[in-house]
Design brief:
768 residues; ATP-binding; Beta-Lactamase; coiled coil; GMP Synthetase, Chain A, domain 3; 7-stranded antiparallel sheet; alpha/beta; 19 strands; AAA+_ATPase; binds zinc ion
């Protein structure tokens, strides 16, 4: 068969599967029958495969068209369920099998149920079914092997469900039953799981939430052992897992609060430290901490270490205290702080990675000042990175007033530090040298790049732009690329029901998912959180971005380059030849890209992109306006998420208030109608509304950070029909509301009711 025909057939097969998956059995059959005629007799395997699928689908059609009758015997219904399972109609098969299992706890039924659940990625449930199967298994010498097979499956499912301790127990039991190669494999598995369970038991929660994969856990343990760091700090520094998440995991595991080293929140050295030798505490990894409420806490790396608690009690001579958990490095830092060893500007290992030839330093920097300037320049970059800033602004002030440095964090500029007059020019020159710019040129704007490595080994890029300002001054603006870490889906502020719905579409094997909104509405963050959710070693994920702002381990990220013709459309074509499972295209601007995206999602890939549209329903009309095929689009689309960022009420100073009649009316009016969940006066009276006040932490504005608001449209049959008909926006919106969508404004108002923001801010970012 020639290449073209082969790829045509492959694509059509995928198309047929897509139909079958959506329950469009007739359409699927039609494609298969076409293909059966197209494939010649010589392609024996393929022809048989197609024939088998046609049989399955025909059988399935018989099954679904028949009324479910209670008179059907157990065997008949089991047969039906197995036909459904064979045809990969797992959901329907599960429904039937669950009923059967209730009637008769037959191990066979449980085994099939487990296989269906596993096929849908529900490993925890699958493991539970296998446990049931084993419990009801009539064990005899003849069916011993079958029993062992079930145990093997159980162990595998438990491992996939991240229940390592349980999986370990099953493997240990199983080992005795196995021989030869299989026994060796089981032993290797046991060794692997033992290491994971012992070395990172405290991180169980991260495994369970799928934030940490077993292979990363293992790698982190190895690095920790080699470098002598704690596994927690390795995960934070090397694998980009947020400290908050690690803290939550530790707190849940040890059932006590998590403490993090933040110098500005410390209340000084506790009395009980008088005369205590620091080496004892370093050895025990325990440090006392004075708390706001006047009480004392012991901060420790392992709160289960009762011996250490006893010794600390003796050495410090304390009786009453609370236990808090912290990562080892933070405890050592706290001890450094108490014993005066904490130094910020000592930074001998800081380095710049040379991109081009190193530039000779110029005479403008006085000798004695030079190292201070170098260190200060590095310190600013490192601080900005650690605080999650996206940009650094160095702004020359007029006269002899030096310069001020501001960081843009969460979209807002925040003052960081001022620079004395005598350091202003050297500092700006230093950044120009780092970026390979001409330091003598001060009257024209220049731009360049710095590649920087922090003391903890993180490498990031900084785009540098200099701009001449009045009085022969210069400003420097630096954008940190790849400095922002990917957030998890839980962290981007989706309401629980939207989160669940979004997760459901992310778990689909293929289709199109769009995130839409104006520039600066947090689309990239959301896309990366979505990719983070599905990022597994078993998946190949390609992304094309401009610029690459977030770097994620496990993704293959490509920076598009319009000047040399490396456009989104071109990168996408290259991706399709590079065996992808998931593709993310940073932005869809033209028809060519839109068309290619839909093709890609119909041929078995999960495809993500963004569009500059205002709302989810509007996106449909926009894409159809670009001339894409409405049938293909309706088939491919899994969901459209529109979003905005509104200012968040400062959690430190916001003040609850009881709304007036007029304010209640206003909220209800702005919310408008919703067919499934109208907003009532009662709803508002039961909620606690807050208003902004202003404190030092929010610069007296009353707002700090931002809250995302979302509108998620997922198509049902009605919406697919409307798409095919190219229905007007308002019809699509109404159908979407009936299908459970909330408009941006409605989502925002629901977040006003939970006290995250206020109506004024919601109104400021969305019309509807
Ligand atoms: Zn405040």
């Amino acid at each position: 068969m020639n290449e073209d025909l082969r790829s045509y057939i492959e694509n059509r097969l995928k198309e047929a599967e897509l139909y079958a998956k959506q329950g469009l059995v007739d359409e699927a059959l039609e494609v298969y029958r076409d293909l059966r005629n197209l494939v010649s007799e010589e392609e024996n395997g393929l022809k048989q495969e197609i024939q088998k699928r046609i049989f399955e689908l025909e059988a399935f059609k018989g099954v679904v068209s028949e009324e479910e009758t209670p008179q059907d015997s157990f065997e008949e219904r089991l047969k039906k369920a197995l036909i459904l399972k064979e045809g990969a109609f797992y959901q329907q098969a599960i429904r039937l099998l669950e009923d059967l299992a209730q009637e008769n706890p037959n191990p066979e039924v449980y085994r099939h149920l487990a296989e269906c659940l596993a096929a849908l990625g529900q490993h925890e449930k699958a493991a539970n079914c296998l446990k049931q199967a084993l419990r009801h298994f009539p064990l005899s010498p003849e069916n011993r092997l079958e029993f062992v097979e079930l145990q093997k499956k159980l162990a595998e499912e438990l491992e996939k469900a991240y229940e390592f301790e349980q999986a370990l127990l099953v493997y240990q039991k199983l080992k005795e039953e196995l021989l030869g190669e299989e026994k060796v494999q089981a032993e290797e598995k046991i060794a692997f799981l033992q290491e994971l369970v012992q070395g990172a038991a405290q991180l169980k929660f991260l495994f369970k939430e799928k934030i940490l994969t077993p292979s990363i856990g293992k790698e982190a343990l190895e690095i920790a052992r080699e470098t002598g760091s704690s596994v927690e700090s390795v995960l934070i520094e090397k694998f980009g897992i947020s400290k908050d998440l690690i803290g939550q995991a530790l707190s849940r595991f040890y059932n006590c609060p998590f403490w993090e080293f933040k110098e500005d929140l410390l209340l000084g050295k506790p009395q009980c430290l008088e005369g205590v030798k620091e080496s004892f505490l370093r050895q025990l990894l325990v440090a006392p901490l004075a708390k706001d409420d006047g009480r004392l806490a012991l901060v420790m790396a392992n709160p289960f270490d009762l011996g250490a608690i006893e010794q600390a009690k003796k050495i410090l001579q304390v009786k009453e205290f609370e236990i808090m958990v912290a990562i080892r490095e933070d405890i050592l830092k706290l001890l450094d702080y108490y014993y005066g060893k904490l130094e910020y500007f000592e930074a001998p290992e800081l380095e710049i990675l040379p991109e081009e030839e190193p530039v000779e330093e110029e005479e403008e920097l006085p000798e004695d000042q030079e190292s201070v300037v170098v260190q200060f320049a590095n310190y600013v970059l490192e601080e900005a990175y650690n605080r999650g800033a996206s940009d650094i602004h160095i702004e020359s002030l007029t006269g002899k007033r030096g310069a001020q440095i501001r960081f843009r964090i969460d979209g807002e500029c925040i003052p960081f530090q001022t620079v004395p007059y005598h350091m202003k020019r050297p500092l700006i020159s230093r950044y120009k040298i780092m970026a390979g710019l001409d330091i003598a040129e001060k009257r024209l704007p220049q731009d360049g790049k710095i590649k920087f490595r922090t003391r903890t080994g993180k490498v990031f890029e900084v785009r540098v732009a200099t701009i001449p300002t009045i009085e022969n001054n210069e400003d420097v603006v630096m954008r940190i690329l790849g400095g922002v870490q990917a957030r998890t889906l839980e962290e981007i502020g989706l309401r629980p029901e939207v989160l669940e719905q979004f997760r459901r579409i992310l778990e689909m094997p293929y289709g199109l998912i769009l995130v839409v909104g104006p520039t600066g509405s947090g689309k990239t963050t959301t896309l990366h959180a979505a990719l983070h959710y599905i990022n597994r070693p078993s998946k190949k994920i390609w992304t094309a971005e401009d610029p690459v702002e977030i770097v994620q381990e496990g993704l293959r990220q490509v920076q598009v380059h319009h000047k040399i013709g490396l456009t989104f459309a071109r990168v996408l074509r290259a991706f399709l030849r590079a065996d992808p499972d998931v593709i993310m295209i940073g932005e869809t601007r033209d028809e060519e890209t839109a068309h290619a995206l839909i093709e890609a999602s119909l041929t078995g890939h999960l495809v993500f992109s963004t569009l500059h549209t205002n709302s989810a329903p509007e996106t449909v009309t926009r894409l159809l306006g670009m001339g894409i095929d409405p049938y293909n689009f309706a088939d491919a689309l899994l969901g459209i998420l529109a979003q905005r960022l509104a200012k968040r009420l400062c959690p430190d100073c916001k003040e609850p208030f009881t709304p007036t009649e007029k304010e209640i009316e206003e909220l209800i009016f702005e919310y408008g109608n919703h067919p499934l969940r109208p907003l009532t006066e009662e709803d508002i009276r039961q909620a606690t509304l807050y208003r902004p006040v202003g404190c030092h932490r929010c610069n007296q504005t009353g707002y700090r950070g931002r809250v995302a608001i979302h509108e998620l449209l997922t198509p049902n049959d009605e919406l697919r029909e409307l798409i095919v008909k190219a229905a007007p926006v308002h019809e699509i919106r109404e159908a979407a509301l009936r299908n459970g969508m909330f408009t941006l404004k409605q989502d925002g108002i629901l977040k006003v009711l939970t006290g995250e923001t206020d109506l004024k801010q919601v109104r400021a970012v969305c019309v509807r």
